Amino acid sequence: MKKFIAFTALVSLFFSSCHKNDRGELVGVKGRKWHPEKPFGMTLVPGGAFIMGKSDDDLANVQDAPTKTVTVRSFYMDETEITNSEYRQFVEWVKDSITRTRLAILADEQGQKPGGGNGKTGGSIGDFAFKDQDPSKMSAYDKYMYENYYSVGTDEDPYAGRRLNRKVKLHNDVQKYPDEYYVEVMDSLYLPATESYNGLRTFDVSKLKFRYTWMDIQAAAKDKTVGSSRTKRSKYMKTENVEIYPDTTVWIKDFAYSYNEPMHNDYFWHQAYGDYPVVGVSWKQAKAFCAWRTMNKNSYIKKKKGRDQVNSFRLPTEAEWEYSARGGLESGTYPWGGPYAKNDRGCFLANFKPNRGDYAADGALYTVEAKSYEPNEYHLYNMAGNVAEWTDSSYDPAAYEYVSTMNPNVPDLSNMRKVTRGGSWKDVAYFLQVSTRDYEYADSARSYIGFRTVQDYMGTSNTKNQK
Q1: CA pair distance 163, 165, nearest whole angstrom
Q2: 92-142 pLDDT, tens per residue?
Q3: Which helix (H) or strand (E) covers residue 394, if one does?
Q4: Domain coordinates of the chain in residue numbers?
Q5: CATH class of 43-83+244-467
Q6: CA 438 – CA 449 distance, rounded (Å)
Q7: Between β-strands 388-394 and 449-450, what pairing exists: parallel, antiparallel or unpaired?
Q8: Distance CA 463, CA 73 (A)
């Protein structure tokens, strides 16, 4: 087999060199020209240098942010915090996928195949069978992948890699369930009637788990044996399986002896709060959202010929967040400069707690819509106040003393304290300052912490220092 591959490569090399019009010159590989595409809802933050850290007196005397000149590369950033509506898109996709997976597995176990219904509305559970169930109708590539990967699965999941049939619509009306197998699957996904609240049929959110794989490049880069016959890359491939539904009980747990039941009951799912920032999401859930957003976009691009896939959406590093929040203003206290949290007309410039016990002095008791107040010079909304935001960086009070001056970051997986920035609706003005550092544990969720995502800009020519 190896001899055949080597021979094929040699023949290909011979004929390719004979039939090109390069006249034997070094002209490079011909390919499509790359055109950067600004992701929907994001803005381009041009790379550059800035002074990171406290430019004013450190009133809290934390001493964890001494000034340091650093440089960051260009990237796209969400104009707003991720909203309830946007996060619900993630939840609904996972819910749909899990439902279809369970239907397909049961159809596989029962030996049912498509054809029991009209193929569009799900006339039987067989219509939800895996699309690769009949290898004879596959393309050569799909058949190869099925025979070598999909059909064998893994030890943890024997159905890993099987393709779901997403064209058939799911039935939400219990009176229209097509057969007893469909009833069995749906019954396993919803809470029993004895646990229903106000008679509502409720999906068991503990079933909403999103699994994704990522590579620990930091660890792999330090291993000198990676790429050799002694060590495989799979050693550094990590698989995460995350429950992704927000913790709505944070509205109760975060505030003892306080009446916040309406926020617990309605904030995440009710359309009235669709454009408000999602909260109750841990750092791990935010990372899972980033992985899904990347996969969702590339799944669409894969269907379009002639387009390159996008690189990953991710959480911003601490330095990227501060650079973006400053909006190009050097040594400003807040995203709008400062030093005050009011404008010249006496109006507050962010959603926070201006006075002791007075949460509503700025016009909002809890959060406000993600596109509230004026954006900064990079067209980013609520970089101060509303909700604090997760970053990708681990918190170390001495980090500024040793991090690199180029794209600084502390990606310490063993450190569960993750940096949050920007302050929130329940914080005093100190936490709204662009240089103030705070942290929360990666597996914790709060009613005042959300997030926004970034994506690296492909290419290096876009910086704010360009002439």
Answers
A1: 7
A2: 999 999 999 999 999 989 888 876 544 445 578 899 998 876 666 677 777
A3: strand 388-394
A4: 43-83+244-467
A5: alpha beta
A6: 11
A7: parallel
A8: 8
